[in-house]
Design a protein that fits this description.
Strand content: under 5%
Helix content: 25-40%
Order of helices and strands: HHH
Distance between the termini: 25 Å
Low-confidence stretches: none
Mean pLDDT: 76
Number of domains: 1
């Protein structure tokens, strides 16, 4: 699931959160080229060629793992996640 995390404890935490909320997520998309063997992210796509996608997070009223979902949202939106997101080509606006 989360192969890109450098620290094993972060990878384990991310995998546990993803596994807990995955049944309630519906469809998702994968952005970027990070994690592809032999491919390195060297910089952003030039602004005039860029297509930006906004993201929002929320919980379904029927979510079975509400605490895990809330923890994932907190994890992804924490200021400390900014450098990791940016290093992987995501602008944490």
């Amino acid at each position: 699931m989360c192969a890109g995390a450098e620290r094993a404890d972060h990878r384990a935490e991310a995998n546990a959160l993803i596994a807990a909320v995955l049944p309630d997520t519906g469809k998702s998309i994968r952005l970027g080229i990070t994690g592809v063997p032999g491919v390195d992210l060297v910089g952003p796509i030039p602004e005039e060629l860029q297509t930006k996608i906004g993201f929002a997070a929320g919980l379904s009223a029927s979510a079975k793992e509400r605490d895990a979902a809330q923890a994932l949202i907190r994890f992804l939106t924490a200021p400390a996640a900014g450098p990791t997101l940016k290093a992987n080509g995501v602008d944490p606006a």
